Request: fold
Amino acid sequence: MKESGRGQACANIALTKYWGKRPGTANAPATPSISLTLDPLRTETTVQMIDTADDQVVLNGVEATGRPKERIVWFLDIWRDKGLISGSVFVSSFNSFPTAAGLASSASGFAALTMALADLAQADLSRRELSRLARLGSGSAARSIFGGIAAMPLGDNPAARCVLEAEATPWTMVIAVVDAPEKTVGSTEGMERSRTASPYYRAWTALAKKDYATVLHGVMHRDFTRVGETMEANMYAMHGCMLATRPSLPYWSPGTLEVLQEAKVQRSKGLEAYATVDAGAHVALLCRHDDADAVADMLSLLMDRERVMICRPAGHAEIPA
Ligand code: 2P0
Reply:
């Protein structure tokens, strides 16, 4: 074990969504998922052994308390229980993108922390093992261990795998950060509420398996239209399940619908981009690399240009040299 370690990882956005956990498991998903890992949505994390009774966590320069800290301490406990590290740890993590914007920071956050702890532990862990560990912190983090397009299957204790390297991935995501209040129900709680109180939950999990297979096949054959159409339909199905939850889980804002509508209009005019929305209000549009600027221009008619982010496929999470 070293005195300190470093890791970095990029966020990902799912093409088919993870929404639901198998009860009684450590983030074993109820739906398989596929995602694109995105540059420049990067998290860089440093960990250091400290001589204090408790762990210390600093996120974007601010000392963490409450739930965000508890989640990280719980994750460090897993590493200690496995004998990979020992003693108290100081964690410092920086996002290259605004966390407050509600973009997927738990995915890159737990993936970067996993890489930093692997560096600290000097443990000889395969990328699959790293992905499995990252999943214990946050389900979507398992996918951010890999660059390009990653797939997360079902299973008792699954790990993600890379299905298409970044260099071979011909698609870009253009993200529209829409005006929205901070969300009140996080993914962990929202998934559990949908599982127990959405009349569409079973239909959603059944459909998600079919969409996963379709998108996986589409990715393998670089069939953009099939991937895009299925991705968008999968997103609407997930939000249908969320909306039907009692009480309802509405994550969209008026700006979300505005972007969804405009993307549809532009598609009918020949700009082929497909939309997806996570457990939040922002919209990500998937397009071919060459159409990214046109998609960003289209979004700039609806919002300030600085709210539009062109995100290319990122590489694997890593321990920086
Ligand atoms: C996804 N989301 O596939 C889906 C789409 C949100 C909607 O993965 O409880 O933050 O930490 O495992 O990973 C968000 O879930 O949840 C998520 P936990 P996580 O990207």
